[in-house]
Every structure is written in C-alpha cells, then in structure tokens.
Fold this protein.
Amino acid sequence: MNESIGLGGLVLAYIGDAVLELLLREKLIAQGISDTGRLNAAAQKLVCATAQSERVERLFPVLTEEELSVYKLGRNGHTGSHPKSASAVEYHRATGMEALFGFLHMEKREDRIRELFDIAYGE
C-alpha cells in the first residue's frame, strides 16, 4: 500500500470530505444553479452521511482491492460519535467513502476520483 495509508482512515476522510464537497459544488454550478442559498441547500443534501452511505453502494462493484481496503480503513475508524441525522452504520459508511476520496487525492489520482465520482453521483 501507499504512504497515504499511513495517515490513517480518519485523516484521509477529513481531506476526502473536502474533495467530495468541491466536486459536488462544481456539479451543482454546472447544472445552472446560481442562487447561493439553493446551492448550499442542494450540496448539504448530497454530502450528508445518509446520502453518501447510499451513493457508496454504486462504487462497490468497481473498486479495486486497494480501494476497498482504504474504504474499510475509513469505515472502521473510531470516531466516537455520529450526527443525529444518520445512523452509526450510515456515518461509518460515509466516512469510508470520504477516506477513499481522500486517499485518491493524496495519491494524485484525479482521473480515478472523477471516474468514481461520476459513478456515485451520476444521474
């Protein structure tokens, strides 16, 4: 495995959260939404743990062994809490997804990030 794994699942999830947020904001702007209030509301619905937990299902069939391992590293991280808006399972699955995107970002695999993002968030 690569050096980025040494950062740990929760650190990878921390950066992955920002990666996903940026990609989702770009997607919403590309859809022609120009009101910042509407943009923020739409983004919040897509980045919440429940939504990410649902979207990660789309990725499982295409993940490599390495990517699945990183997902599990993030999913199994001990956060100590979860938001009231999501179950513990949803929160951990979302954290796994964020860790995966954080790992890919740290490894500078931007093409793979875009590919997986399109699978997860394509309509």
In short: The two ends are 32 Å apart (CA to CA). The chain has one domain: 3-121. The chain has six helices and no strands.
